[in-house]
Amino acid sequence: MKITITSIELKGPFKFFALSARAMSIITQLKATNYKDFKKKGFWTTHYTMTLWNNETELKAFAKSGAHLEAMKASSKIAKEIRTVTVDGDTLPGWKEAETLLKNGDVYKY
């Protein structure tokens, strides 16, 4: 199984409204897939998600389509930085471990 962990640092606190609007569409898209587990948390300008997938094919199909793809195309308008990492695992890690794993992930700065 595959776990994708993502963090987004917003350009400012008012970008939260744009993030929330996109997130609602992405969660609707996610619920239509065969994902296994999902967690999110965030405060002020830093937000995190974790998603557990059966395999990399399902993960990539989600990431490269629909609301998620559209949000990624527009991410430079609201984000200062996005970090993402994909690891193998059967359950989602705790938040402290997730944040440690993100240190070795891909970084996109805008």
Give a quick summary of the entry.
The chain is α+β, with helices and mostly antiparallel strands and about 110 residues long. The chain has helices at about 15-30, 55-65, 65-75, 95-100; strands spanning about 1-10, 35-45, 45-55, 80-90, 105-110. α1 (about 15-30) runs antiparallel to α3.
Total number of helical segments? 4
Task: Tell me the strand order in the biggest sheet.
Answer: 2-3-1-4-5
**Beginning-to-end CA distance, first to last residue:** 31 Å
Helix percentage = 25-40%
SSE sequence, one letter per element? EHEEHHEHE
CATH architecture: 2-Layer Sandwich
Radius of gyration: 13 Å
What does this structure look like?
The protein has one domain: Alpha-Beta Plaits. Strand 2 (37-43) and strand 3 form a beta hairpin. Helix content is 37%, strand content 35%. It contains four helices and five strands. With 110 residues, the chain is of the alpha+beta class. Strands 2-3-1-4-5 form a five-stranded antiparallel β-sheet. It is globular and about 35 Å long.
Task: Indicate the topology.
Layout: E1 2-10, H1 16-31, E2 37-43, E3 46-53, H2 56-63, H3 66-74, E4 79-88, H4 95-102, E5 106-109
Antiparallel strand pairs: 1-3, 1-4, 2-3, 4-5
Helix pairs in contact: 1-3
